[in-house]
Specification:
The protein has 338 residues and is α/β, with parallel strands linked by helices. It has one domain (33-334): Aldolase class I (TIM Barrel), CATH 3.20.20. The chain contains twelve helices and twelve strands. The chain has helices at 7-11, 23-28, 66-79, 108-119, 150-167, 181-191, 212-217, 238-251, 265-275, 285-296, 302-315, 326-334; strands at 39-46, 52-54, 62-65, 83-89, 124-127, 142-144, 147-149, 171-172, 198-205, 255-259, 279-283, 320-323. It has an eight-stranded parallel beta barrel, surrounded by nine helices. It has a two-stranded antiparallel sheet with strand order 6-7. Helix 10 (285-296) runs antiparallel to helix 11. The protein is globular, with a radius of gyration of 22 Å.
């Protein structure tokens, strides 16, 4: 008879629900917390002034001219967001086979860095030296005879890193995945007197299908010839990812990043446990757009799912998250809803 079942005997008087019985107990024993200090806001830049240009594939995200971006960065700082990451949509006339405009001291990235440092000096600026915003073919490196050449690319991005540091970048975050880039950038920065500038390595950047909306945002989706599998990591390979990250640690990375985010939480945990460096995840454009699309259709509660995914990164060992939700999440946290 089911009436004879003794639940106390089964559980040994251990009841997991005791600590879940009320809001105050749940808050008291909560293991993982999301705060505004965990957020980095990626922003997209365009040439011109007075421009706020919606990105169709990323509802709620805009390309902004530097003057409008300054307003956004000031708002981010007011919310307590510690840092931003900048990504330019460079005019097509400035793109070529080698991405040479990446070396211009007055290019869009460096112009924005100087403007942000003048207007909002308290916020951290993270810049990327990958060449894809500057190449006519959409690849992250220099294309020679159908091949992305590693060493020539590394020398160029090391030069670009120094120029970005000269402009005021606080952290260089190379996303190109060329071999040896972290050590080369560290050498170049130190030789130029930028020992204080950190490196956040895109330690495990996978050849993912989640990047599509981002490529629309920076204007490379129609340019890409071939794919990026000769330099990004195969999504099947966790051991290779750990080896790749280990090389970045040896070469002098100060922080590690996993990109994309949610499909690679196992990698986040493995990097944190293995190397102990500050570890970050990039919640990429495809992850963002899927949540936004499902919420727009009424299939999920967008705010709750967004916060749950951000919390998942923290639970997986991440010290912070690059997310297009950063402003929205920070505003919710400020209202006590995080």
């Amino acid at each position: 008879m089911t009436s004879d079942i003794d639940v106390d005997a089964i559980t040994g008087h251990r009841r997991m629900r005791r600590n879940r019985k009320a809001d105050w107990t749940r808050r008291l024993v909560r293991e993982t917390r999301l705060t505004v200090d965990d957020l980095i806001w990626p922003i997209f830049l365009v040439h011109g002034s007075g421009i706020t240009e919606p990105i169709e594939a990323m509802p709620g995200v805009n390309r902004m001219s530097v003057d409008r971006a300054v307003e956004g960065v000031r708002h981010a700082a007011d919310l307590g967001i510690p840092a931003i990451a900048t990504f330019p949509n460079v005019d097509m006339s400035l793109r070529d086979e080698t991405g040479s405009h990446s070396l211009a001291a007055d290019n869009l990235i460096n112009e924005a860095t100087r403007a942000f440092k003048r207007a909002v000096p308290e916020i951290g600026i993270i810049t990327d030296v990958a060449l894809d915003p500057f190449t006519s073919h959409g690849h992250d490196g220099i294309l020679r005879d159908g091949e992305i050449v590693n060493d020539e690319t590394v020398r160029q991005i090391a030069r670009a890193a120094v120029i970005q540091a000269d402009a005021g970048a606080d952290i260089i975050a190379p996303s190109d995945m060329m071999d040896g880039r972290i050590g080369a950038i560290r050498q170049a920065l130190d030789a130029s007197g930028h020992q204080h500038v950190g490196i956040m390595a895109y330690a495990t950047k996978f050849a993912s299908s989640f990047y599509g909306p981002y490529r629309e945002a920076i204007g490379t989706s129609g340019l890409l010839k071939g794919d990026k599998r000769t330099y990004y990591i195969d999504p099947s390979n966790a051991t290779e990812a750990l080896r790749d990250a280990g090389l970045d640690v040896e070469e002098g990375a100060d922080m590690l990043m996993v990109k994309p985010g949610l499909p690679y939480l196992d990698i986040c945990r493995a990097l944190k446990d293995t190397y102990g460096l500050p570890t970050f995840a990039y919640q990429v454009s495809g992850e963002y757009s899927m949540i936004k699309a499902a919420a727009a259709n009424g299939w999920i509660d967008g705010e709750k799912v967004m916060l749950e995914t951000l919390l998942a990164f923290k639970r997986a060992g991440c010290d912070g998250i690059l997310s297009y939700f950063a402003i929205e999440a920070a505003e919710l946290i400020a209202r006590g809803r995080g």
